[in-house]
Write a structure and sequence with these properties.
With 172 residues, the chain is of the alpha+beta class. It contains five helices and seven strands; from the N terminus they run H-E-E-H-E-E-H-E-H-H-E-E. The protein has helices at 2-7, 26-31, 79-85, 109-114, 120-126; strands at residues 10-13, 22-25, 56-62, 68-74, 104-107, 136-138, 151-154. Strand 1 (10-13) and strand 2 (22-25) form a beta hairpin. It is globular and about 35 Å long. The model is unreliable at 1-45 (pLDDT under 50).
Length: 172
């Protein structure tokens, strides 16, 4: 522990309520008023919901080359999370924070119509999506529900990743 204490002299704390980063020594960290900073539970990318006992539904995928396959989805997770759990080729370069269009999916019209309208942020990202259709959505923004059992999800033939074209990140 002596090496650890000498190695860790300063800690960068998350942004405070007005957006500034705070770096301080460990003893000072203990004395920071809690009203200036907030902490959230550490979640390794994803919704952070406990879905262990959630019901499962069937998802029917149509791949980029027209191949069809079926997986399950857990009610409460996003289409992107379900795809990553089953290693479906749905990129999600921003890891599900609605900052890219690489998890673009095409849904059946009845399901598309049943969803809430996309947010302005999602619409902005969809504007950059390859092969946009009237029933396109971002997989990270569509949460699976029980009434989506049997959902058909079509993957576009390509994506636009402005970071590294062709790079497919692996979920953590």
């Amino acid at each position: 522990t002596g090496m650890l204490q000498s190695a860790v002299r300063h800690v960068t704390v998350a942004r405070n309520s007005i957006g500034f980063r705070k770096t301080c020594s460990l003893p000072a960290l203990i004395q920071i008023p809690r009203i200036l900073f907030h902490a959230t539970a550490r979640v390794a990318h994803g919704s952070g919901k406990d879905l262990k006992n959630a019901p499962r539904i069937n998802l029917h995928w149509i791949g980029k080359k027209g191949e069809e396959f079926t997986t399950d989805g857990i009610v409460g997770e996003s289409i992107l999370e379900a795809a990553h759990r089953h290693e479906v080729e749905l990129e999600g370069a921003c890891e599900g924070v609605c900052a890219c269009s690489t998890c673009h999916v095409i849904l059946e019209e009845p399901v598309f119509e049943s969803l809430e309208d996309p947010s302005e942020e999602e619409e902005d990202m969809l504007d950059q999506a390859f092969g946009l259709t009237p029933t396109s959505r971002l997989g990270c923004q569509v949460e699976l529900s029980q009434d989506m059992d049997g959902l058909k999800i079509k993957l576009p033939s390509a994506t636009r990743n402005f970071y590294i074209d062709g790079h497919v990140p692996k979920p953590h």
